[in-house]
Write a structure and sequence with these properties.
CATH class of the largest domain: Alpha Beta
Helix content: 10-25%
Number of helices: 12
CATH topology of the largest domain: TIM Barrel
Strand content: 25-35%
């Protein structure tokens, strides 16, 4: 091993000297492609796929290294076709691909000169990393790699797994970081331009122990325009990284730095339940509908979606992944104008079930639930509305009129796409909007429909909004920390009667909930409506509201695995 490393250092120096250097770009130019791309494909692939039970299989099942090595030596992707993978990515509408160069098990998916634990020990003769890098570029896709700082195989990495060794502290972390840098050198000098270095496995060490600044500068010297994620800096706010990495969830309000300024970010999400690597026993997958709407939500909040697949050990991408990716590509072929190169929604909230994105003077309204009455209300828009049309139907203009500060768009009887139809509203300039808050109607009533809430949470896999037969509701509500939240305002203090409308099956009965409006609150318990999709209205009590703008939240005592309720709306009626 020592001889390999010494030889690699010499070869690395020669390679770097011979390789044309990139011209460093200003930050705005360096990151522009990422801001515009919106959609990437994540690939987790390695010997853990041979086990077929999650990429953490060695740790979860406490597999000794000698036993795990048998799986590594059996890794033989005879059906791997790099052009097919890249072609699927292109068909799905993604703009960049990120693959694991090395996961926590320490195995390198390329042929490394500084490691004996790589493709060289397998029966496979090629270098899948190089083949995929070349195939992606032929398809016009940017290419990057994930690299784990944690390494369960390398003798110098610490801590060791406590279940495997007597001394978990035995090792030499500085020497391991030197090794990691040499692998980064190989990847950054031997495989062309690298779009992203995506670190992970950082939580066992401090920024100082990982020599994060040194590693960051090392990457910048090799490829100054490569983007680096925030995990090298333990996701700390205000670090040198180019983008944040929320995992398995979409932040309620995007991501900001400590000053509140929006930053670049990317939600990485699995198509299946929670395994990033191949799981041959997986039976639960997100629907095409969920994934398309998730992409829209992410982009509407200023982020990118990095959607993961875990290929089988023989190199096939399973059909459940392919079907969903192709469905996203079909939707993007019609509606991609409203996704790529767009900016975040100018609205914090909307009165309809959907999202918004913007590009120049175009406001794109992604409608998930066709509004009753066929009129789409766009609130608090100070621009002049010039025209409206449905994407995919450029010749059919939609009638537009103004009602006070709102713009009303008349829609056809049925949506062109049940998942998400996009209305393009062309304005006289970039959108200028007023914050949307719910206000009393002509009778003084306040209606808080699920369509206009945001769900605040601290967890992955949060509750979500869904629609069915004209109802929009919050569902999959299995954690107390998932909190539907609305903004509203009342002109004067007053007393209100509280009602809640939901659907609930027998398992949800008795789940406690609290409706908090400003400083007031009213509590109740879920009743059985004879079915999750049977919506009924129940009185909760009365509350006293102060004048002014405030928030309303519904908090539940949700139990793990049991949906608290399918919450459709809360209604406040003034008490005369």
């Amino acid at each position: 091993m020592a001889l390999k490393i010494a030889l690699s250092l010499l070869l690395g120096a020669l390679t770097l000297a011979a390789r044309p250097s990139q011209k460093p770009l200003p930050e705005a130019e360096r990151t522009r492609w990422f801001r515009d791309a919106k959609f990437g494909l994540f690939i987790h692939w390695g010997p853990y796929a041979v086990i077929g039970r999650h990429e953490w299989a060695r740790h979860r099942f406490q597999v000794p290294q000698a036993e795990y090595d048998k799986f590594a030596r059996a890794f033989n992707p005879v059906n791997f076709n790099a052009d097919a993978w890249a072609g699927l990515a292109r068909e799905a509408g993604v703009r960049y691909v990120v693959i694991t160069s090395k996961h926590h098990d320490g195995f390198s998916i390329y042929r490394s000169k500084v490691s004996d634990y790589d493709m060289e020990i397998t029966p496979y003769a090629g270098d899948p990393f190089r083949l995929l890098a070349d195939a992606c570029r032929r398809q016009g896709l940017r290419f990057g790699f994930y690299h784990s700082i944690m390494d369960w195989h390398h003798p110098d990495y610490v801590p060791k797994r406590a279940w495997e060794v007597a001394d978990p502290k035995g090792g030499n972390l500085p020497r391991f970081i030197d090794f990691m840098k040499e692998q980064l050198r190989e990847l950054l000098t031997g495989y062309g331009d690298i779009a992203v270095v995506w670190f992970d496995g950082e939580w066992e060490h401090s920024i100082e122990e990982m020599r994060s600044d040194e590693v960051y500068d090392f990457i910048r010297k090799l490829q100054p325009n490569t983007l680096i994620n925030d995990r090298l800096y333990k996701r700390a706010p205000g670090n040198r990284a180019d983008f944040g990495t929320p995992e398995q969830f979409v932040p309620a309000t995007g991501m900001q730095d400590p000053s509140g300024k929006p930053i670049l970010w990317e939600s990485c999400v699995t198509i299946n339940t929670d395994s990033w690597g191949y799981n041959k026993y997986e039976t639960e997958f997100k629907t095409e509908r969920d994934l398309i709407r998730m992409l829209i939500e992410v982009v509407s909040k200023g982020g990118n979606l990095l959607l993961n697949v875990g290929p089988a050990p023989d190199g096939r991408i399973q059909s459940e992944f392919q079907t969903r990716l192709r469905a996203m590509g079909r939707w993007l072929k019609v509606n991609g104008e409203a996704i790529y190169e767009t900016s975040a929604s100018p609205f914090a909230r909307l009165p309809f079930f959907g999202r918004a994105t913007a590009k120049g003077s175009n406001l794109y309204l992604h409608v998930f639930q066709w509004p009753a009455g066929g009129v789409l209300r766009v609130p608090g828009l100070d621009n002049q509305a010039l025209s409206a049309r449905l994407l995919g139907q450029p010749a059919a203009k939609l009638p537009v009129r103004r009602e006070g500060a709102d713009v009303l768009i008349s829609l056809p009887a049925a949506p062109p796409d049940e998942i998400a139809s996009v209305v393009t509203l062309t304005l006289d300039g970039p959108p200028m909007v007023r914050p949307y808050v719910i206000r009393p109607d002509a009778q003084g009533m306040l209606r808080f429909g699920a369509e206009s809430c945001e769900i605040e949470t601290r967890f992955e896999q949060r509750a979500k909004k869904e629609n069915f037969l004209g109802h929009v509701f919050v569902t999959r509500w299995i954690r107390p920390d998932d909190i539907p939240t609305w903004s509203f305002a009342v002109p004067a203090a007053g007393r209100y009667r509280v009602e809640i409308t939901y659907g609930a099956a027998g398992a949800s009965k008795g789940t406690g909930f609290t409706i908090a409006a400003g400083a007031a609150q009213a509590s109740g318990a879920v009743d059985n409506t004879q079915g999750d999709w049977v919506f009924k209205t129940f009185p909760v009590g009365e509350i006293q509201l102060a004048a002014g703008e405030q928030t309303l939240q519904v908090k539940s005592a949700a139990r793990a695995g049991v949906n608290a309720m399918n919450l459709e709306r809360v209604t406040l009626t003034p008490v005369k």
